[in-house]
Amino acid sequence: MQPFAYSRPGTLAEAVALLEERGPGARVLAGGTDLLIRLRDGSLDPEVVVDVKRVPELAPGIRADDGRLVIGATTTMTEIAAHPVIRHEFAALADAAAYVGSVQIRNRATLAGNLCNASPAADTAPALLVHGAVVVAAGPEGTRRIPLDAFFVRSGVTTLARGELVTAVDLPLPSTRLASAHERRTRRRGHDLAAVTMAVGVDARGAARLAFGSVGPRPVVRVDDTATLGDRSATDADVDAILDRLLGDAAPSRTSMRASPGYRLAMLRVLARRARATALGRLADG
Amino acid sequence: MAERVAIELVLNGARRRVEVEPHHTLLDALRDDLALTGAKSCCLVGECGACTVMVDGRAVDSCLVLAAEVAGADVRTVEGLAPAGGGLSTLQAKFLEHGAVQCGYCIPGQLMAAQALLETTPQPSDPEIEEGLAGNLCRCACYEQIFDAVRETAATAVVEPRAPAAAAR
Amino acid sequence: MTASRVGDSPARVGGFGRVTGAQQYVADLHPADALHAKLVTVDAAHARIVSVDASGALALPGVHLVLTSDDLPQPVPRFGPQNRDRPVLAVGETKYHGDPVAIVVADTVDQAEAAAAAVRVEHEPLPAVFTIEGALAADAPLVQDPSLREGQALAQTNVLNEHEVGWGDLDQAARGADVVLERRYTFPMVTQFAIEPHAWMAAPDGDGIVVWSAIQHPYWLQRMLAGVLKLPLARVRVVAPDPGGAFGGKQHPKYEPALAFAALRVGRPVKLVLTLEETFQAVRRAACDATVRIGLARDGSICFEDIRADYLIGAYTDIADRVVGKGSYVGAGPYAIPAVRIRGRSILSHTVPSTAFRGFGNPQINWAVESTLDEACEALGLDPLDVRLRNLAAKGQPFIPFDTPCDGDWADSVRKAADMIGWGSPMPEGRGRGIAVGIKSGPTTGLSTSIVRLLADGSVVVYAGTSDMGQGARTVFAQVASQELGAPLDWVTVVMGDTAVVPYDQQTSASRSTVLMGNAVLNACRDIQRKLAAMAARVHGVEAGAVAVEGGVVRLPGGAVLPIADVVAASLGRLGGEITGLGEARKEADPSHPLGGSAAFFEFNCTAIEASVDEDTGDVTIHRHVTVSDVGKALNPLQVTMQDEGAAIMGLGHTLMEHYLFDDEGRIRNLGAIDYRIPTSMDLPRSLESAFVEHEDGPGPFGAKGMSEGALLCVAPAVGAAIHAAARVRIRDLPFSPERVWRAIQERDRGEAGA
Fold first, then answer.
1. Domain C287-443+593-749: which topology?
2. How much is the pTM?
3. What's the complex ipTM?
4. Residues lower than pLDDT 50 in chain C
5. Buried (b) or exposed (e) across C392-417, using 16+ Cβ within 10 A?
6. Which residues in chain A (60-99) have CB-CB distances under 8 A to chain B?
7. Scanning every residue of chain A, which has its alpha carbon at the shortest distance from the alpha carbon of B63?
């Protein structure tokens, strides 16, 4: 690994000031499970690594606040996967967090880190998109709220400005239950990077949202305004027709070694059907 | 070259102070600065688990943690598993008894993952054991024997989370 | 104090260090004055080295040396277990992605890495071949300079060697066949992926050198180093700490010579620990493209097999041509077949040199032959189990006419596997079963020597030059000594892995050590027993012939039975001392034999699989995996089970998920653990059941045979047959990745299914 300096700011102001001053020469360290791999392989070569785990505003924790569930930026996948409210109200997110890496990885990997990498394959992104998550960012200009759909640009790039960092992610606690499920495709059953990710959410009125990743430069969310996916009496043909429309613009990488575009596109449909079935089952279970 | 970082940690129950390179991982520090070579180096990308240690009671890949990050933390390695008076812990003994050890290179990591699992889930189900150890590759593939050792440790021993040592922070 | 017996399963000797972290692998050695080395490579496969500029690297802090082939004796020494074709460092060009151009030495690992990155290697891409088709093309660039292959008929081609064996009249035999099928099966490049990446250290040692290497063949390394460094054997000491997994990948020297030159140059210990990525660039298994023509009669008898197997080896020979020759040799399988022809070829390419890997060339050809046989069974509507039982060689039958006859009751293993999986019984909807057998020739030559010392208190020191890389050789040797000399297991020390201390052993390979070194240890113990009998007779004033020493006790005339420990001190007398035994076991060469010697034994395995396929995704689930090996006698049943189950799961790796992927320039794309997948604890069969057959009919101690590779040999064809039974798709390329299986299902549904 190339040498770099290590900084561990104790306040948000310090962290923001450092990130603003150093710009691309600084990299934020939360869980480190992606960052350290990229530091080692040389694809990142920062002057300073800014460990934000001692910034109080980014502290791990999951709490309800004014109709929203607020997840601190450094909350780990282990905590998310185990949280009772998330498991019930945002089940796809719990599913996704439980799929991230191994136990060792989940014990370190943070939600904010998973989003800030902006990997098209980020496991938690589809679930968060389905549930309408908002990223809370703090920066030199103060705090702003960025809907997750407006956060991702392309692989490795977000709409965070220089000096900004994510302090929390929050999710609207729904008045009507939105049951959701997450599915993914990998090359083995043990932990693996996903070749396709898919989350589907359905509510009792039949509204459905579907989000997916690994099949384009960024995760994408689509809304089924025909209420077909949420209708458990819909025929397979109806469902497939809607999926064809919602998934039509997926454009998987042609050069990935993890799966071919044809397989990814086919699996997108398979996973959508499966996630929908699981979500409908969860809706029925209450 | 960036300045070295002085950290204090509790390592296998003893307070230690060490200066580390900012770009060195916890694995580097354990092996090169703290003379504990039990945690092993293999993939260095968090895939194989050979470097697994416990930080504040949780299993982590020490190749993906900067040494500087564990300032004030409670770190446990395979060298700290055996009882102070000598001999082996139940888990270690069950590993040998069930034939969970062949070449042995992955075993320190397997043991620490298993120890962390048993401390958080004292009576794990079979899927919980499989999942709890999925981050530790064994190319000799003694997986079934490792499961047996973990299952039997759960059945015969009380694996209590050790009280976290006083934070050194 | 009870002695351990063979047939017991005591805890692993050496296990304590392995569960406490005290076991020292090479990377764990930290001499205070050690320097650190790093290899310099280029991001290309075949490239001309235009220039190497080390000035920037040498100017960095802590850097002691940048060694290139220009700094070595000229012509640059070449080495290799078969052909001396691998230079110590690349000369003029790199031949594969990862071929080291230079080695740098610095005070710290960080400094060595920085220096390696600072060495400027100007290079130009050269035409290259990465596939069998490419290597055999008329205009293919030659991988090896013909001057290295003087006198070889094929020197102007990329075919390194051809191996042909056969017997009987194919044409005549074909006339009896009711179906003749020809099928092509491929097997990808895979890597050993020992969890311990390769590691070495070299240091000047007086007038000579000492090299620490996690190597399976320390004496072979010693001989090679002596040749390259022009030192007498007695000045080359190889210390071989237990490897952290080897699987064949640590049999033969790789970068030890370069490290040795570097250490001699700087005059201090120099340590080189490869990354996992560098290990992928150092060792792999040969890929294979095999075409099998098989004739089967309606009564189930195999009329003939005509096999062509092209193995894609790397840029240097290493042991790969032996892998091809020996692996293809038993390619027809454990059957009595009237007519067989097997043609194996070693094809050079600009890829990582392939080397030994558990199964040694057999899994590749076995996959093709057993799968084609399954297809032939299907064509005639015959039960694959019946066909195998019908054709298996019977014990004592010379199934390869010029080799060791069948040395086991192989049908017992097959019947046992069939019983265990419930062959023919109903199973849940959507599942299918497959069964396959595998055979591998054991060592064809060998020499193992052992010294055993019975100390004055009855404790024992065994010297055995085997490398204990996980197979548990140390435990088995201790058990043999314990049983023979009556010392409890924790009174037996087994010393291994140091050519300055331990007598000669040819190698740790081909599952030989239980048989060859086991016999050497046994013979050394028996030597002690003879000496002790004579001494006891003197002490007790009886005829030497009247004293028997066996099974750990001394029997005197008149019925007295004394523990050896009680007799030894009295027998040694006032000067004390000890009793030393010397034992040897040989397997002589036979120059007239196609392999240079007949098989010391055969490893035989039968694997039966029950699987289902998720038709939407192509996921294969192994519900049941049954593996049965003929082991002669299980000296340590627990270790036999561990080896068989480990081999079975390793076999699932190349069957379901493992393969190298290359880019157009011959660089490995999935270099490292993120994209080269091996089985985790989540990827196991839902049920893995292993058993073994013991008829005490092997050449090893107490009738043991070698084992530990068998259970890997035929996993792929058994899984392939189960997939076919479950989903009616025949897939002829490995691995059975979800995508590949899904594609086969798509083709089936479009009516394009192969076969």
1. Aldehyde Oxidoreductase; domain 4 (3.30.365)
2. 0.97
3. 0.97
4. 755
5. bbeeeeebbeebbbbbbbbbbbbbbb
6. 78
7. A36
